[in-house]
Amino acid sequence: MTTSQGQHVPHSVGAWATALVQGWMRDLLGARAEPLVMGRLTWGGVVTAVLFVALAAIAHSIAAALIRRPMRTWPPETANPGGRTHLLKAIGKPLYFLIWLVSFYFVLSTLLLAVGSGAVAQELQEVLRIVLGLGILILALWLLYRLTWVLEAHLKRGAARSPTRFFDLLVPLIGRAARMLIPVLGVILALPIIPLAAGYLQLIDKGVSIMVIVVLALLAFQAVRTLEAALLMRFDISVADNLRARKVYTQVHVIGKVIDVAITLLTVATILMLFSEVRQVGTSLLASAGIVGIVAGIAAQKTLANLLAGFQIALAQPIRQDDVLVVEGEWGRVEEITLTYVVVHIWDDRRLVLPLSYFIEKPFQNWTRSSAQLLGGIHVWVDYSFPVEEGRKALKEIIETHPKWDRRFWNLQVVEADEKAMQLRILATAADSSTAWDLRCDIRERFIAFIQKRHAEALPRVRAQLSRSPRAAREASPAPNPAPDQSIAGPVT
Q1: Single residue among 330, 365, 400 that ends a domain in this structure
Q2: What residues have CB less than 8 Å from 285, skipping those under 6 apart?
Q3: DSSP letter assigned to residue 37
Q4: CB 439 within 8 A of CB 405
Q5: Is the pTM of this model over 0.70?
Q6: Residue 242 falls within a domain, yes or no?
Q7: What is the pLDDT of residues 223-249, one digit of tens each?
Q8: Angle 85-89-95 (CA atoms, 0-180°, nearest 5)?
Q9: Are residue 324 and residue 442 in the same domain, yes or no?
Q10: Which of the four, 59, 223, 376, 471, has the lowest number of CB atoms within 10 Å?
C-alpha cells in the first residue's frame, strides 16, 4: 500500500497497523510482499487482522488469569453472594466480550481498507463505528445489570444484620428499580450514537418519554407493594386470634388498590398529555362538560357507588379479610376484597361474588365481627321418659373432655315440649365457627349414642290408644266364674 493511497484512508489504528506491518514485510520479503489477496487486500492487511485476533486471545487469557487468581486465593463465598468473588464473576463475561468486540472492530477496519477511500468505504466505516458504539453500550448495560444483582445481594447481607425487617423489603425494591431503569438509560444513551432524521428523533423522543413514565409507574406500583408488606409484616392472619390483623389487612389492601387506580389514571393522563392532538380533543370535550358530565355520572353511578363503598369498608370495616359471613343464605369466608366486588369462599368451595355496595345496603351476618368465638347449639328430641339429669351428667363428660371445647360455657335445657316428646337444647362454646361446627357434630353423635345405649326406650316414639264401645268391651270381657253351691241335699226322711 503506497503512501498516496494511505493519504485517503482515515487515520485509524487499523490503517496505521496495516501500514506498519506492510513496511516490515516489504523489508523482509521484498517484492514478494506486494501481491494482493482478493483484489485490493494486501498481505499486510491479512497479517494485521490475524495479529489483532491473536492480541485479543492474549488479552482474554490475561484478563481471565487476573480474575480467576483472586477467586482461588479468596475464601469461598457461596453463602455470601454479594462478596468479592461474585463481583469478579459479574465483571468477567462482559470484559471478555468487550475484548473480542474491539478486536473484531480492528479486524474489520483493517479489511475495509481494501475497499479504498471512496464514499462506500466511508459509509462502511461509519456503520462499523455505529456497531462498535452500540456494542460497547450493550456490554456496559449488561455489566450494570449483573452488578445490580451483586449490589442487591450485598445490601441483603447488610439488611440481615439489621434488627428490623423493613430493609429486607426495601433492598429488593432498590434492585428492581435499578434493573428497570437500565433499559431506559440504554435507549437515552443510544440516541446520540445512531444518526437519525429529525422526524424520527421526535418520534423516538416521545417513545422514550412514554417509557420513562411507564417505568416510573411500575416503580410506584412496586413501592406500594413494598409499603403494604412493610405495614403487614407485624400482623399474622393465620393465628387463632387474628381480629386486629384482619382489620389491618383489609384497610391496607383496599387503600393499596385505590392508590393503584390513582397511579394508573395519572400515568395514562401523563402519557396522553404528550400528544398535542389529545390535548385539543380534551379541550373540546371540556367545552361540553355539562352534558358529558351528566351522561358520565349516570353511566358511572354503580361504579362510583362501589368505589365509595370501598372507602367505607376500608374505614368502617363491616367486613374484613377472612371474616366468616352468612350472606344470601350461604356460609363462607371473605377470600378477596377488590375495588368493585367481594369474593366469598363458600364452605363447599363455591365462590360467591357480590358488589361492594351490597355490604353497605343489605343486611348480612358477620360471625367474626368482634371475635371469632362462637356459641353453638344442638337440638335433640327425646321421649318424656328420658332422665334429663342423668343426660346432663353424661353430657358433662362428653363436652368437658372434648379437645375442641374452649372451656367457656356449656348447658343442657329442655326448651320445648308438645304432646309427643320434649326437645333438649345443648349449648357449647368454641374458638371459631369451623371448630364450633365440628364440636356440635361430635356432641350430637355421642349424645345420641348415649341415649341409644342407656335409654333406648326414651327415643321419640308415636303413641296410639285404641278406644272400644261399651258393648264390645262387655262381649270381649271373659264371663265370671259361678259361685260354688253351698247347699247340701240330704235324704228325705
Answers
A1: 365
A2: 292
A3: E
A4: yes
A5: no
A6: no
A7: 888 888 877 777 766 666 666 777 777
A8: 135
A9: no
A10: 471
